[in-house]
Amino acid sequence: MLYSKKVNIIFNVFANINQKENNIPKSTVQDIITLFDQQGHVDAKKSTGRPQEITIEQQEMMIEQIKQNCEVTAEDICRNNEINPNGLSAQTFRNALNKEGIIARRMQNTHCISEQNREDRLNWALEHQDWSVKDFR
């Protein structure tokens, strides 16, 4: 009986403080205290849903590999047995990279310009920099 009086006193004090400061309903505080009375502890419930296939260690190794070589693809990571011993798909690695803020991009192909062509283009641009739109027609 003495225990329940202490719990009620703690409940009232805690509920009043939290209600004023955090807008936590008294029913929530009561539920927490009831759960503590029943189980002796208050733990977070087990998360629902499908567990992640990729481990934190795999994510760290994958990000480290990408930092070393930015041209590596998700398929390359998927083929690496050190990072992917379980045979996960490339899409799994893409999803993990997206969560880390690393978005896949294709390298843009640029045409190589020879030094002579570059010099000729610069000279032409310098000669024509004062031209108006009418002059180009």
Question: Can you characterise this structure?
Answer:
The chain has 137 residues and is mainly α. Among the domains are: 2-39, no CATH class; 56-99. It is built from seven helices and no strands. The longest helix has 21 residues, at 2-22. The chain is elongated, with a radius of gyration of 32 Å. The termini are far apart. The model has no long low-confidence stretch (mean pLDDT 80).
Please write the string of helix (H) and strand (E) elements: HHHHHHH
The major sheet is characterized as:
none
Shape: elongated
Rg for CA atoms: 32 Å
DSSP helix count? 7
- Give the proportion of residues in helices: 55-70%
Number of strands: 0
Query: What would you call the structural class?
Result: mainly alpha
Distance between the termini: 99 Å
Relative strand content: under 5%
Mean pLDDT: 80
Low-confidence stretches: none
Summarize the topology.
Layout: H1 2-22, H2 26-39, H3 56-68, H4 74-79, H5 90-99, H6 115-127, H7 133-136
Helix pairs in contact: 1-2
Task: Based on the model shown, name its key terms.
mainly alpha, 137 residues
What's this model, at a glance?
With 137 residues, the protein is mainly alpha-helical.
